[in-house]
């Protein structure tokens, strides 16, 4: 992972590294040129030889030898000084080269230290990013689990509410069905009771009508009609215009106790005075006699008024 991080760091920072190397190379070139310039500026060694022109023909032989010896020693001394100067210059150049090499190595060590520090920073940054990513992933996972739990709780609550509503709806439907059955049972009972009542009423009515028919066909009906005829006839005042063979149909509305409520002569072979006299007689005969068998009683009664001549 460190190698990959260093590779990524080199890929990301290669322009800066290239610039640093180029800058150090430029500094080294300037330094080398300066050293060359210094060497050129150093004056060449001068030989401390003082030449004297001697006429050998005038100098004795021993003097010539001494002179030659001195010249040789001077040349050797000058050569020695030149060698020493060259050695000093060489040592100085070596020192400068060594210092340059030390500076180069120091720069390389510094660059290596910077790279190592950068790698460490990159690794720490990578580790920090990985830690942040892990923490973020863990937080997202916790949030997801919390959301899933909340969703499950909401679903559970919704399901509970749905079941409660379904149970309430079933109970309501059952209650409606129960009430409907009760209403249907009550309606069937009511209808059956009405049917039974109507059947009973019909049977009673039929029995009553049969009894009435039997009663009307019995002598009691004739007696009841004769009683009404006699009661009205007793109250009738015969007008002068009444002729013999008078026969009128009289309609009477009476109460259960025989009180006359309304009377009208419908068909009659007499004049208006006769009709009026008959109506007056009916009013005066009120209350009319009741039959011995109440089945013969009619609230709206019709009878034929036919007095004896």
3D structure, described in words:
The chain is mostly helical. The chain has two domains: 2-142; 222-305, Fusion Protein Consisting Of Minor Coat Protein, Glycine Rich Linker, Tola, And A His Tag, Chain: A, Domain 2 (2-Layer Sandwich). Helix content is 73%, strand content 7%. It contains four helices and three strands. It has a three-stranded antiparallel β-sheet with strand order 2-1-3, with helices on one face. A hairpin with a 5-residue loop joins β1 (248-254) and β2. α1 packs antiparallel against α2 (61-216).
Rounded to the nearest angstrom, the distance between the terminal CA atoms is: 154 Å
Order of H and E elements: HHHEEHE
Give the strand order of the largest sheet, numbering strands 1, 2, ... along the chain: 2-1-3
Helix content: over 70%
Number of domains: 2
Largest sheet: 3 strands, antiparallel
Low-confidence stretches: 44-54
Shape by Cα distribution: rod-shaped
What average pLDDT do the residues reach? 82
* Rg measurement, Å: 80 Å
* Structural class by SSE content: mainly alpha
Strand content: 5-15%
Number of continuous helical runs: 4
The counted number of beta strands is: 3
